[in-house]
Amino acid sequence: MQPRNMSMSGVVDLAAVKAANEAKQKAEQARAEAARQGGAPAVPADNLVFDVDEAGFETSVLQLASEVPVVVAFWSRRSAQSEQLVQQLAGLAAEYRGRFVLAKVEGESAPMLLQQFAVQGVPAVFAVVAGQALPLFQGVAPEEQVRATLDQLIQVGEERFGLTGIQVADAPAPVDAPAPAGPYDALLDAAMDALNANDFAGAVRAYQNVLADDPANPDAKAGLAQAELLGRVTQLDPQQTRKDAAERPADVPAQIAAAELDLAGGHIEDAFGRLVDTVRVTAGDDRDAARVRLLELFEVVGADDPRVGKARTALARVLF
């Protein structure tokens, strides 16, 4: 259905019709009174869009229309077009911040209003301004055309009826709510406490408990790899480890120990490079042991670290 009546020229009387000059005078008096009392109270942004039925139309639309243009959208749950249009108008109501409000009327539940507004089909959009109903359009329309119609409506409301809109309250600053506790948060916290206390065996047990129920848990997998690494490194003599690695370049356990010492000391690229070189110069079970330990060290550092990606590429080159 194509939009029609994109004009402010037609005016349909309602039972609550008032003369334009009287409406304008009343609006000016209301603003003066509000200013005398310190200004009109701001309304929440959620109040800019609301549902209305026949019983509440007079109080929620006709009375509000003496303060701000009210766009009345007739829609149906059986019409995808009308649902789309209502969503579009609701977004524009939020954007225009109180220069108009949107009243949604589900046509099936309001036959008298459909008759009163002479609605031919949904979606159909009208405006109520100071007790007068103005046909806007029927059917969907491009957003720029809808905006132009709303701008014209706002101009008519202000110039003819003295309606300058309502003040909208700023949204409160979001409060950072604590994230809900996950099913393994307590165990993961206990594991971290154990790591901080250098109780690496206790941390390993806590992470293993999580992985027993959730084998793919990324925090537990990374934590377990870290706890096992630190547990092994604390048993090493750094001087002797480096001496053994320098003297026996093809000795896989010696190279693994030195690589783990490098990693624990923050020398990540050195650790990865050492084990990639070890994979290159070894074969069989020794080669596989170096490769598996390198993959475990990737878990410690984390897959998102660019040094891990670089080392994976280097490992692939020496393997294939």
From TrEMBL:
Residues 21-155 form the Thioredoxin domain. Transmembrane segments: none annotated. Pfam families: Thioredoxin, TPR_20. SUPFAM superfamilies: Thioredoxin-like (SSF52833). Gene3D superfamilies: Glutaredoxin, Tetratricopeptide repeat domain. It comes from the Bacteria. InterPro entries: Thioredoxin-like_sf (IPR036249), Thioredoxin_domain (IPR013766), TPR-like_helical_dom_sf (IPR011990). This is Co-chaperone YbbN. It comes from Streptomyces cremeus.
